[in-house]
Every structure is written in C-alpha cells, then in structure tokens.
Amino acid sequence: MTRARLAFAAGGCQAAPxxxxxxxxxxxxxxxxxxxxxxxxxxxxxxxxxxxxxxATVGAPAGYQRLVVTARPSGHxxxxxxxxxxxxxxxxxxxxALDRRGWQLDADGEGATRRYPPGSQASDAAFEAxxxxxxxxxxxxxxxxxAVDGEGSSIVLGG
Length: 159
What we know:
The protein is of the alpha+beta class. It has one domain (8-155). Helices cover 28% and strands 28% of the residues. The chain contains three helices and eleven strands; from the N terminus they run ββββαβββαββαββ. The chain has helices spanning 32-50, 88-100, 122-133; strands spanning 8-9, 12-13, 15-16, 23-26, 54-58, 67-71, 77-82, 104-105, 111-116, 142-149, 154-155. The strands form three sheets. The chain has a seven-stranded antiparallel β-sheet with strand order 4-10-5-6-7-9-8, with helices on one face. Strands 1-2 form a two-stranded antiparallel ribbon. A hairpin with a 2-residue loop joins β1 and β2 (12-13). α1 (32-50) packs across α3.
C-alpha cells in the first residue's frame, strides 16, 4: 500500500463538515508507524489551532479492540481503548497486556488509557498505538481511521 499522506492546508490540517473517506491504515505495511505518526501530528495541530480536542478512531474487526487517539489543545496525546466489544477471555488478555505496557485502567474498569505530555514525540504514541491495536491476536489487516474534533467537525486525514 502506498503511504497515505495527510492533507494540510496553510497552517494546519483541513477541517470539513464531512470526511469523504476514512484513512486506510495497513497494519502489515512497514510504514504504518509513519502514517500513525502523521495522524498524531495532525490531531495535535488541529487541537492546538482550534482550541478543542481532536480524536481519531482506529477501527477493528468484530470482537477486537478499537483505539482512540485524542489530542488536547494543551498538546497532550491520550490513547484509549474500551473492552466492551471483547469477549471475556480477550478482555482479560488485552487488559493484562496493556497493564504490563504501563496503561492506566479506567475508573469503571472497562477500558484503559496511556497519556503522552506536551512535547513528547509523536512517534512514541504511534508505536504504542500500533502495539495496542494488535494485542491478543488482533489481525494485522487494513483498518479504517476516522477523525473528528470537539466541535463535531470531521478532520480529513488522508490526501
């Protein structure tokens, strides 16, 4: 798969009322980390410039964990996943694996998050995001990535 590039307008990523198509992330592609790094950068730029959260959801096949990458206007990046779509065995395996990777369990016990402070490398969050979406036997296939901001506007990721 050819590396998808982010669409940038002068001064940041494009915001549109409706995104045409999701960004397709090929987890088997060597350059997947570069694509996810670009997504993290685009979210941070959008969040800082627009003063609202920006979030991208990495889809997953049925029975596997989705991942949400959220950028805050402060520059923080938060990776998060919920276990509600998982069977009990996979839930336990994913929760244990994320705990060993330093993720914090959500207050309700049904998900976990990993935070990156302002100034952290976007690639650190990208490598962790890729690890999280492939835990517990999740397939390394092509995933749809969609993004919206706190105002409800779609963020165009693919160009």
